[in-house]
Amino acid sequence: MSLRAVKGMKDILPDEISKWHRLERAFRDRVEGYGFREARFPIVEPTALFVRTIGETTDIVEKEMYTFTDRGDKSLTLRPEGTASAVRAYVQHSVQGREPVTKWYYIGPMYRRERPAKGRYRQFYQAGIEVFGDPGPYIDAEVIDMVVGFIASLGITEVEVLVNSIGGAATRQNYTAALLAYLEPHRDELCADCQRRMDANPLRVLDCKVPRCVEIAADAPPILKHLTDDDRAHFDRLQEALTKLGTPYRIVGSLVRGLDYYTGTLFEVLGKGEGLGAQNALLGGGRYDQLVKSLGGPDTPAIGFAMGLERLLMAMPEVESESHVDVFVVAAQPTVRAEAALLGRELRETGLRVESDLRGGSLKSQLRRADKMNTRIAMILGESEVAAGAVQLKDLRAQKQHTVFRKEAAKRAHEILAG
Ligand code: ATP
Ligand code: MG
């Protein structure tokens, strides 16, 4: 039996990686432009962290977590998302004592045992941000505007921004009563999970994917009608700010999202273009004003979002991939192979990316490799060039070749690459 990667987990090989690098670099540049700093958290956390934050009646905790017992007796879980770890770390390191507002970002793999499909994997990557200490609503608008601008910068133009508010505890309490009154006559039509959810956490019914439950949820009374005055004012200010920033959005009263820790503002960005298929949610986020406190920290309002990188890559337009090398050094005779290695090092010291085939081989076969790699420049070194302190510099795109002084070879290469 041959060994293969675990179902739903993919290798990302070098041919694909330049797209990933481009995406990750664009994300870092964008969020650092708003004052976010990177944090890295362990991939494995105590199981209780996710049960207590994401919520016992959510899909993730009920059926999707990779949980195992450590060699001792500890229950550990591969992280299904990043916010729980961020909050744990924020509390553990008493970050609130150092700064009134904390802005973190992260990029890394997440694990959920879902049914694999296009755009849905068991190991997938998320990039996300968290802001601690700002109650909004202006930061809510800025975060939404930031991520919408980021997605547009990737060339993804067909998107839809959905926003909603589920308010704080008082709103939820009012609403739960109204929701239960609506659901009760439909109890028998709901799936078994939802019947349980009605007793444990009625809001979760609105997030069910079973078709009949979706139909019933569609006619449920909207939570927006039950917002307290404060929650309503927050939501109104958020909308004004989004309008001011010119960020288009659509209010979707049924948006509740699949994690229990959310309060107030919720948002999601859907990709509308082809290529995504059914898994078209590019990102989701919202406020979680009670979470820091619930993990033993001080009362700290917070907001964040997480994006699925695979889905962003699927939605991004194809661009021609660039070569991963700038210069291919060719040794014309076996006698100059060590000299070719030295030339390679000289060139790299000026910042060029250089490869050569130090196994040797014919001039032709070495040039063929340079061509295959889509390298822009070949530098050919033979015994006569070494004697003359020169190299043959060949621009493989322009198909032009001339002799240059070795001292000036790097400078010439940089000029050609700069166009
Ligand atoms: P979905 O409704 O697609 O299951 P979700 O509500 O479970 O998404 P979140 O937990 O909010 O998603 O995660 C944020 C983003 O992470 C999603 O919008 C999506 O882009 C991505 N994501 C979530 N689960 C997966 C997965 N199994 N494979 C790939 N990407 C995923
Ligand atoms: Mg999901």
Topology overview:
Blueprint: H1 14-32, E1 37-38, E2 44-46, H2 47-54, H3 59-64, E3 67-69, E4 75-78, H4 83-92, E5 102-111, E6 123-132, H5 138-153, E7 159-165, H6 169-183, H7 192-200, H8 211-218, H9 229-245, E8 250-251, E9 263-271, E10 281-287, H10 291-294, E11 302-308, H11 309-315, E12 327-331, H12 337-348, E13 354-356, H13 363-372, E14 377-381, H14 383-388, E15 390-395, E16 400-405, H15 406-417
Parallel strand pairs: 1-5, 7-8, 12-13, 12-14
Antiparallel strand pairs: 2-4, 3-4, 5-6, 6-11, 7-9, 9-10, 10-11, 14-15, 15-16
Helix pairs in contact: 5-9
Bound molecules: adenosine-5'-triphosphate and magnesium ion.
Structural notes for this entry:
- This protein has 419 residues and is α+β, with helices and mostly antiparallel strands.
- It folds into two domains: 14-168 and 228-315, Bira Bifunctional Protein, Domain 2 (BirA Bifunctional Protein, domain 2), CATH 3.30.930.10; 327-417, Rossmann fold.
- The protein has helices at 14-32, 47-54, 59-64, 83-92, 138-153, 169-183, 192-200, 211-218, 229-245, 291-294, 309-315, 337-348, 363-372, 383-388, 406-417; strands at 37-38, 44-46, 67-69, 75-78, 102-111, 123-132, 159-165, 250-251, 263-271, 281-287, 302-308, 327-331, 354-356, 377-381, 390-395, 400-405.
- The strands form three sheets. The protein has an eight-stranded mixed β-sheet.
- α12 links the parallel β12 (327-331) and β13 (354-356).
- α5 (138-153) runs parallel beside α9.
- The longest helix has 19 residues, at 14-32.
- The protein is elongated, with a radius of gyration of 28 Å.
- 37% of the residues are buried.
- The protein binds adenosine-5'-triphosphate and magnesium ion.
- Residues 81, 112, 114, 119-121, 124, 126, 257-258, 279, 281-284, 306-308, 310-311 line the site of adenosine-5'-triphosphate.
